[in-house]
Structure formats: structure tokens, C-alpha cells
Amino acid sequence: MGGCADSGSDGAAGAAGAAGAGGVSQATDTTLDEAEDLPGCVLAITALSGGSGTGGNFQVGDKITVTFTIKKNDGTNLPASELGDARIYVSGPTFNYQRVIASTSNWHTAATQNPDGSWTYQIPTAIPATYLAPIDDTATFTAGELTGTALLSGTYTVGMQAWKTYTQSDGTSVRDAGSTTKDFLFGTAVTLDPREVVKKENCNQCHVNLEAHSHRRRDTKLCVLCHTAGMEDTNDPLIEGGTPDVTLEFKVMIHKIHNAAHLPSVLGVTTNPDGTRNYAATPKPYVVVDGTEVDDMSEISFPVMPSAYVGYTYGNDGSETVYQGASGNGPMPRDVGYLGLTASQKLQEDKIRTGVVACWKCHGDPDGSGPLTAPAQGDNYKTMPSRRVCGACHDDVVWTNPYAANGLTMAAGWTDSSCAGCHVTYDPGDPPTIENAHTHPYSGSLNTGVNVTISAVGGGTGPGGNHQTNDNVSMTFSVKNDAGTNLQINSQLTRFQMMVTGPTSNPQNIFSNISMFDHGWRKAGANPGGGTGYGSVKLKSVAAGAVAQTLWIHFTAVNTFDLVGTVSGTLLTGTVVPGGGTTGDLTQAGVTFEVVDTATTDFTADEWYYLEVIPLPAVGDTYTYKIRADNSSEVKALVAAPPSTTAVTASNLPMYYGWETLFEVTAFGGGAQVLAANSAASGRYVETATSVAALQGVGIDVDKDVVIDLGTADEEYVKVGRFQTTDDFTGAALANTRIWFTSALKKAHVATDAFQNVTMTKRRRGLHYNFVEATGVVTLTDTDWTAGNRIVMNYRSDAKLKSTYGAPSQDSDDIGIDAGDWKTLNAIDGTYTAAIWSNRDFTVKPDSTSSYGYSANSSVEAWNKWNSDNTTYRMISPPATKLFLFGNADMIEPRAIISSGDTCDSCHGQLMAHGFGRRGLDTCLVCHAISGMEDGPKYNIGSAKNQVTTQDPEKWKYALLDNIGVTPGVAMEFRTMVHKIHRGMDLANAMTYSTNGIFLGIPYPASYEDVGFPARPGGVKHCDKCHGSSNNAWKEPEDRSHPTQQTVPLRRWRTVCLSCHDSNDTRAHYDLNTSASGYESCATCHGEGKVYNVQLMHKSR
After folding, report:
1. Which domains does the chain have, with CATH numbers?
2. What is the pLDDT confidence band of residue 1095, given thresholds at 50, 70 and 90?
């Protein structure tokens, strides 16, 4: 890069040529107003002449004459005299670029304009007999370098670049640059062989407008003419102490830049003389110098998923340094021997395995089914390996040593000519082919796919089938693999979740995401009596004709059980599990399963096991199910002990088997306490003047149950999640002790209401009660019940639409109605969204006999099984959503803030999140479009005890060791979160922005101060990069006011704009232009059509 850093001398302005047929040459205004686009500097070489060889081929000693045009974007000529600088150079041959004629400056002052408006320029240096040395050449890198040797016959390239400087309205300058190349034949070559391994259109999928070196170079065809074999970094000892041993050959440099954070050299990994890995090498940051600017690339990761999405989790030894494993399915499969590595070595391996494997992103078709074409030589990465290009990423290879990996060993001393023999085609005993070795299991043949299609949303009882309050929401859907075969929900899926949100104008949480079905036998929870057991029940298969019912296993004695079905009745009686053994496969009512005892007499007082059997569709390929909801802490009074009192009834139906938990309130703690402030329904905390120590003294503590308003209509039971005595923002002491609960309050409570500790004793179905699923009638069957005690019921039933909106996920007071949070407000007419996502786990094992280096494991291992050479991944369903109407709405209105998930996928390949449990933008928006969705945990902080996780422990020394910490005021809805993530390092307060990521239930703090948005120029100013080029929704924040109950002004500008513009100055500017009552005046200046409108302020040049 240092070789391109010279600015060049601006030559004297030459006389403007006469206007030609190509357009009128007129002096260009060099001042741009705020809205004006750059006029353009479009170069095009129309002809090369001067070759003295046969057919016009060029020979040594020939001077190249270039005929070219310089135009603006509107097609008019741009006079050469107006250019600020212009350069031309020659390199070749295209199969191994070397410098031939060094960069010549200021051709614009010597070019002659032709009558047709084109220009002619003769390069003053004749074609030499030998190749020039590469830029900043030393003896360090000589592979592929042909310095001083005779020019080979072949295809060579002339490159031209130029730019014009304009002054912007704020007084700053901006370059309008252009470039072009043209190939020619040299020597005895007869056929042009252009170089096109990657195209700028590939780069621009992420970078929008590829540019480098102060905006002057904008095409990969130009890049390769300087970044030739043997080019090195400047290595100036006065800059960063020098940067020796850094090659800037294009194919090496680009691989290293995009894979920098995962390079073995950066992570301190190399190879020992015996071919094994050395994990104790000194890490070497990947640093290059551009002019005098030092670029440390060591934190750069490639954005293509799944490799781009991995969290590295750490344990709780007090130092936050004990590595536990990689969360998520991003890394490539583990190699043989992973199990035997230390924790720190596993971390190094996991980071290496998370490197770039999506070679197709740069070398394949840039836009898939779009109009662009793949690079003509894009497949070179599969067929033309070399030590330079492969060693760019795999820089732990020491070519003079053997290299052992995954059961195979590469001998020392191989040359480039030998690489293709093993790595291009596959024969048994060979390593995987290049293409296969870079095929992620998620993308390969082992991922047979999960695809959900919602064909209908039912249950509406209003006119035209519209949904109304108290209606259920049913979904008719299919679940298939990529081959179109139906998947059996119980035995072939790992997860299946449903959710409902709406309206699309301002999404709210209607039905929280719920795991609908059993994917294997489900434990109902620990039973009273002390036993928990270690046995398990393994589901083997569910036949096509299986009976649709709920099965349960009831252990009646030590290692002895009955099998009962809600339809079939008793199927097995007194079946024995051999101590420490297994029943072997048992098949009943179409279900095949096995009961396993892992130690003698494990099943004494063990849990029950349930399976709701979901047979394959008897007709067609669709299922129809109502979305369900979990009801918590429903209170029933026990007037008298059985048999006098025999039944209580659930308030919502049906009451699904195996999802219920009944508690008897058997004791109340001493010393009832008093609330110090009012608490609203749907709130997550109460306040009391009592100190934490005093509360703990009367049994009120984290993870303990309390009752509020005992003996009144507002009586309810909640579990304590956290005590708070200081403000999460300022650290100032609160006036009262705040008690957060793990679930939302159902009732409103007022100051002076009482609360106290309670003892809730779990009761067991079959021993203490039974119930009828359809009617919800619970029959009490045992005299252990005590007259006068309360029964608290948790159970699952069909969900019903409510007249008011529920609270968003992780809700608190930090984000409220002024940001569009409509909790407890009336539901409005509109378009609502039903959604499903599902996945299926699969495990791969290292396999040196496979052409991929891995193969399918015979069984599925847990995704977080760290101590294994095997790796578990998951097949994820693409978005499955269906819009429906609520109330009196008469037209479906989709949400169109972002035009399409294709905008995300242009950089990310396939958008994925949450341990690869979610895939695609529309799935993300189901949760993350909900106004008021917040980061967590705030109210169940105790649940994260002893789990501190992070991507880099050095960055998280401020994280609490016993939990992941609260993040007050941090929104998780996309209009805030995605803006902040993508602005990342450019946030004024980047180091203060952190979120609690979730990988399959494991929380971990995530920061984004190393994230850079790749669009050029201007980074996140390219709003259309994410929102879509034809989308105008981003030009002004949308109004999310409730139509009838907006009690405070909506702060729509604050929520969106301050997510990126987070500096203290910007906050002050916002506060000054917002009234004390909360009314924003932002639209006065920044509204559409206004002088500082959003589109204008985000204009990129």
C-alpha cells in the first residue's frame, strides 16, 4: 500500500480541446451544493495502438498510444484540463501480474483532444525488455516475482486513473475519481486472456462503491496492477516501528484483510517441526501502512454467516478467563484431537475455525439470480491453489515442516506445482478438495433443510373472518425438508416456535414466542418427595399412522412404570427398567421409544415424562394448530379439604396435559411488608421502604416466592428476581428498595398494600390430583390438601386475543409509550403477523476418509458439548409469516421499513441469529420490530449467576462476575439496535454500548466497538444499503402514536436518530429542541423537504 501512497504532482493545466461529438465541453462548476451528486469522472479506453508485431501485437521497445474518453455521468465531455491528477501504468501478464511500466503522472496535461471529443496520449516510456521490481521490494517475498527477467508473451493491461476535486458547501473537498483498464497482446500471444478472478461488483455487494487510497482507486482491475507478486509494505521504521514481512500482493493481502481476526498468526498459532500445532507462538497483529496511516486489521471478520456469528463463552473462576466453548453454529467442524486440547487452545482453534469459508461471496455470482454475472475466472479458487494464496489464511503452515491435521499429514517441501495434485480432485486418502474444505456443514449436503409454509391463519369470528378480542389464532402450515418430504414434528425437529405480533404500523407483543410441541419426551419437572432421578426416555420414531394423543410415563415403583395415553388409555403396566440398563425399543400406538436407567434404582420418585404425539398429516401435507399460551399463578381457593372439596377449574381451556404445575400455599412468612408506591399491571417491580437486609430477614429473597394483597381481589403470587437499591444509569441511591419479579404483575397495586414470603408446595398429578384436558376440571384426590389453603396453578392452554396489548420482552420503565410501547393500551384495528420458525439439529464428526473432511455422526449430540471432537449444527427454517386482519381493518398492510431481507443477505449471505435458531430478516422482525423491546436481564439477574461470557475477556473486565449485568435503557428493537451495531466503532460512545446476547439460553455480553460498516464512502450514511434503494421509509421516522390513548408526546426522532448520533453534543442539541413536556421540534429542520432533511444529511460522496 505504501507504493500507492504518493500523491503525485499536479501538473500544469493543459489547454482544453475542442468539443467533439461525444458532448459539449464546458467548464465544470467545482462547487457542489448539499443535494448535488458528483458529476462523475468516467474514463474509457477505446483503442490501444503502437504495436509493431504481427496483428498489432506489442513488442519490446514499442510505445503504447492510448485513445480514450473522459465523460461525466450525463454523457458530456469532462475536459482533461479540469482533472486534478491522472496516472497511467502497465502490468502483466494477466496470469501473474508484474510491473512493466511504472506509474506515470499527469497524462491529462499531455493528452491531445481529438475532433470527436476523445483523447490520445502516448506513454513516454517504451515497453522494456524485462520486468520491473515490485513496489517496496526486498528479498523477503520472491515467490511469483519475475524482476529482471524477460517479458513473457501473453495478455498485458494498461490502467488509467484520474480525478477531479470539488468543493462542498461546508468548505471541505471531495474527489470524483474514475478509472479504466484495457488488455492487449504482447509478444507472440494470439488470444486475449483477461484477468477476472473477482469483480468489483462482488466487492460492492458489501462496499457499495469500492475505493481505496483516499478515494482514488475504485476497481479491482486497477488494484492488481500495483499489488503484484512480491509487493511489500512500506516498512518504514519511523511508522509503527516498521512493518516487515508483510506482502501486499493482492491475492494474499485481500484474503488476510478479510480473515484477519481468525488468522493463526494473529492468534498465536504456528506449526512445530513434527507437524503438530504450536499454540504458544507470539501473536502477530496484521498491520499494514497506507502512506503514513497505520491500519491494524486484526479485528476484521468477514460478515458472511454462519461463520460471522459466534460467541466465545467463558466460565466463572473469578478471572473470566476459563474458556467454555463457542456458542452458535458458526465454526467449521472440529478436527481429531480437539477433545484433548486445553481450554485456551480450544479458544484459539475455535477462532481459527470461525474464519472465512464463503469463497463464493467474492468469487461467485455477485447477486445470485440478478442480472450480474460471476467473474469469468471465479472458479480459479477451486482449481489453482498455491502456497501464497492458501497460506494467506492458513498462515500456521510452515512450508519447510510437515503439517498434520485431522488424521492426515502433508509432507514438508511441496511446491506450488504439487498443490493441485491433492487439493483439486479427490481420491481416497487425499485431503478434501479446496471447494469441499471450504463448504460449511450448514451449506452442504448434510443440511437437508427445514422449510415451514403458513398457508392460512384461522380462528377469526368477525366479518370476513377478521379476528376479534377473545378469538384464538390457528395456523395451517406444512413442514418439509428441501426435497419436499414432510417432516415429523416430534422426532425430526429440535424446535418449533410460534408467535403473533401487530399491528404492522407499530408492532406489539400479542402472543410471546412459544415452543409448541414436544421434540422427544419431555420431563414435567421435579416431583415432591425428594427424587429427581438420572434416567431418560429416548424417542426413536413416530409412525405415519400414530395416534394423535398425549402419552405419559408414570413410575409406580423403583424402575417400574406404566404408559398411558389420553386416547389409547393404559398401554403398558408394570414395565421394568433393568437397573443400570434399558428396556430396549418399545412400540406403542405408533411411537417407538426406549427407557434408560443410568444407575441402579434411579427412578424412585422420578419425574414423569410426556409426549404430545403429532402424527404426519393423514391427508395432504398440512397441520392446523392453535397457538398456545402459558398461564401462570392462577389462584384458586381451597374451601375445604378433600373429599369435601373435590375440584377447581382452570380459567382458560383446554388445560394441556403435562404442562401444568399445581402448588399448595402451605405457609406464610412472618412480617408482612408494605409497598411504598403504586405499581401498574404489567409492571415488573414494586417498591418498599424496607431494606434488603430486613427483607431477607423475613424470608423475602431472590428466587423466593411472595404474595401481594393476600385475601383481596388483587391477590397474586410472584418470584423475586432482583433487588435494586441504586439507579442503573447514575448509580445514585434510590429512595426505596425496588423488588423486581421474574414475571409481570397481573394486577395493579397501590402504596400501603401488603406483601410477604410464602411457601408453595408442589403437588403431583396422579398422587394429589387429576384433571380433564378439555374441561380444565382439576379433581383433588388426596387428603394431603389442607382446608383454607390456596392453590396456585401454572398451565398451558389455547391463547386468546386480548383487548389490550401485552408488555414487550424484557420490559421496564426505561422505554415507554413515548417510544411506541403500547402495553396495557387498547388493541387497534389493523394488520397483524403470525410467524413460525423451526430447526433440526445434526452432528458431524471429523472423517479423514470423506471428501469433505467430515461426515454425519450416527447420533445427535448436544450443541454445547464442548468435550468432543464432534460438532453439532442446526438446520434453520427460512422466514414463515402470514398477515391477517384484526378488528374492522379491511386491507392487508405489510410492514415495509426495510424493502427485503435481500439487503441484509447481500453482506451476510443468510441472516442468522440466536445460536442459529432464527434465520432471515422477516423472522428477526417478528420480535425485534416490537416497540419497547429491551435488553435484559433487568428483573431476573439471578438466573445468570456464575455465567460470564464474552467474545474477548479483556474487554469485559467491568462485567459483574456473578451475572452479566443490567443494561438500562438499551432497546432491542431494530430501529435502535441495528443502527448501533452497524455504526459500531464510529459511535461517539461505542465503548459504553453493550447488549446481552443470547445463544440458546446462554446470555453473554456483546460489544460492537470493532464493527465497521463496509459501505463506501460514508459508511452508515448509506441508509439505502439496508432499507433498499427504492424505499423511502427511512427519510423520516414513522409516527408510532396510539390513535386514542397517546398520553405523552411520541419521541420518534430520539429513538431512531440518537441511536447513531450518540455524542454528548448531539444529545444536548436534541434536548434543547425538545420541550419540557416532550414535544420534539426535529421535523422543523430535518423533516422531508426541509433544509436539513434526513436524506440530505446522509448524502454520501
Report:
1. 2-226 (2.60.40.1930), 522-613 (no CATH), 628-798 (no CATH)
2. very high
